[in-house]
Structure formats: C-alpha cells, structure tokens
Amino acid sequence: MVKSEKAVCVCSGGLDSTVAATIAKREGYEIHIIHADYGQIAKDREYKAVKRIGEYLGASDVIFVVLDFLKRFGGSALIDPSIELPMDEGVDLDGKSTPSTWVPCRNLVLLAVASSFAESIRASHVFVGFNAEEAQSYPDNRPAFLESFNTTLESAVASFTDKITVRAPLIDMFKRDIVIKGVEVEAPLDLTWSCYLEGKVHCGRCEACQHRKRGFKEAKVEDVTVYEDERQDTLG
User: Fold this and answer.
1) Global pTM?
2) Which of 102, 105, 150, 162 lies at a 20 to 30 A Cα distance from 75?
3) Which domain holds residue 126?
4) In this structure, is residue 153 part of a structural domain?
5) pLDDT by residue for the chain (236 residues), tens digit each?
6) Residue at 98 is within a domain
7) CA 143, CA 135: separation in Å to the nearest integer?
C-alpha cells in the first residue's frame, strides 16, 4: 500500500471506532476523521473526544457534520428524551433484542455520508467500528449489512472514481477483544467517550458504560475511566 493512500474513519469518540481508526493509521493510511451530530444526548462530550483522538492520531482533518434530521425523525432514546434509556437492570448485556438506543437506519445514513466524503477526497477506504458485540442487538453492525453496502457502493460512485471499500476490522470481535486490540495498536483508549449521557464523567450505569466496564474487566486491562456510580460508592 502507498503511504499516501487516504482513508475516511467514521468516529463516534467511543472505543470501537477509535480502535478502528488507529488500525487505519497503523496500516499507513492518511486518515480523515468524520463525526456526526444527529442530536444525540452526549454530542458535546463526543465532539471533545473526537477532537482529541484526531490530534493524537495525527489526522489530516476532522470533519463534523450535522444530521439533525435524525433527531427530528426521533424513534430512539439517544435522541428522544421521552424514550427511556436502558440503565442498570434494564440493560441487556447479552444483546438478545434491539434496545431503545437503536437509531433508525443510522449506520446506513452515516456510511452514505462518509462515502460521499471519501469520494470527494479520493480516499480508497472507509473505516468503521462495527463489531460482533453490537451486532447482537444492531443489524447494521452485521457482516450482511457491510457486504450489501459495499456491493451498492460499487454502483454509487462516478465512473472515474477508484473503488471505495468500507472496512470493519473489528467485525468479529467482542468488547474484550477490542480492548486487547486497542492496547496492541496503542489506541488512545483513555481519550474515548462511551457514555450515552452528557456528564463530567462516564455515568457507569447506561448500556454503553456497562459494556465498556465489562470489556476492560474481561480483557484484564486496567480501566482508567472514571465512572460516576463507582465514585459515589467510594464517597458514600
């Protein structure tokens, strides 16, 4: 691979997408990060995390796009305060059903936007953080969706454009494996933000925080994340 080959990295600021972006960087790509504000509760915390991650990885640019129509459509606890977030006993860590945090067709929209960005800068790949753990609950994290999108993408770009491929290097991994891989590639795990909420620290109670906690614990890697629920237990 030519060192100057470009890759667009879809980055939420969380563990999965950050490890995927780091892998792209380690493979020698010139990375261009894209982050979407779709009205999610934690958008400000995600914004800060993505900025820092981009700086750490030496991204050529960090693009922030606003997809506020997704918030207008609603249908998810991440963007609609009237829908209850899965917390504590309401969290299904085994991912047996699609949770209230599902944002209708979000990844389809995000990949379309990222692919448009990739074509405009002549990038050959789009990197995403799809993984086996999220695939248990979210169909747009599964290999079938990735393969289908890549097939569609072949007919979606101009004839003079080189082929663009979406890559999901973590697609067969669970959170434990992602943490281990992150340490291996020296991803800035300490800069990531996983929490669904907009607090000063991770809440420790939401679905995303509990998956994060379990991932570090099972990987036997020190978790330097500060969780509000654990801090309160210590103070209380």
Assistant:
1) 0.93
2) 150
3) 6-235
4) yes
5) 444 699 999 999 999 999 999 999 999 999 999 999 999 999 999 999 999 999 999 999 999 999 999 999 999 999 998 999 988 865 665 656 778 999 999 999 999 999 999 999 999 999 999 999 999 989 999 999 999 999 999 999 887 778 899 999 999 999 999 999 999 999 999 999 999 999 999 999 999 999 999 999 999 999 999 999 776 554 44
6) yes
7) 9
